[in-house]
Amino acid sequence: MSATTMRLGAAALGLIVALGPAQAAAEPAAGPRAAQRVHEVKPGDTLTSLAKRYGVTVAAIVKANKLSGVNPAIKVGQHLAIPASETATAAAHRSSVALPGVAAAPGVVVTAGSETRYGLVVKIEHTAGFMTVYAHNDVNLVEVGDRVDAGDLVALVGNTGRATTYHVHFEVRRDGLAYNPLYLLPMPPRIAQVDEIAKTPHE
User: Fold this and answer.
1) Which residue segment(s) compose the domain that 162 sits in?
2) Domain holding 146: CATH number?
3) What's 48's domain CATH number?
4) Are residues 19 and 114 in the same domain?
5) DSSP labels, the chain
6) pLDDT tens by residue, 29-78
7) What is the pLDDT of residues 87-109, one digit of tens each?
8) pLDDT band of 112, cuts 50, 70, 90
9) What is the pTM for the complete model shown?
């Protein structure tokens, strides 16, 4: 291992402090679903009027109640499950994944704004020429010039920019070059032990 690589690895150790929490936030657990309502059919109610009232489709009501027929009839006094509207479902999903993105090491915020590819993004400069990037945020919680410590909240996980789902896009850069954060992490103890054993001559 070259001296340059060793210095890079040593400097990177300071970035490991909160990398775990940042990665955990990238894969949020399934959150609570929007509550399903029950409607008691009143005189004059139709599937079309109920769909319009609750902001859902007729097909969604039919499916939720397992109604049969091309134009299923409903009766006064009948209890119908009304599925959550798309708006309510999206709001519930958003609240369940609004997890924190935290700074990986002490530094100064040099970018806190929006970019086409990254969406809402925060970039933090650290010592030894390192920079960390936190992209696709739902909300940026810091401003340019702010000083942060390892573990400080800098953003909420989102899916802005060119993203298809809620996650943290995390980068480690040094002198303008991007590095895979996994390559800067110490080798896990189990793997190190196996590697050490493998290199030990058989007695």
Assistant:
1) 11-29+98-186
2) 2.70.70.10
3) 3.10.350.10
4) yes
5) --HHHHHHHHHHGGG-TTHHHHHHHHSPPP-PPPPPEEEE--TT--HHHHHHHHT--HHHHHHHHT--SSS----TT-EEEEPPPHHHHHHHHHHHH--EEE-SSSEEEEEEEEETTTEEEEEEE-GGGEEEEEEEESEE---TT-EE-TT-EEEE-B--SS-SSSB-EEEEEETTEEE-GGGGSPPPHHHHHHHHHHHSPP-
6) 344 444 457 888 999 999 988 888 878 888 888 888 988 876 788 999 99
7) 555 554 554 445 677 888 899 99
8) very high
9) 0.49
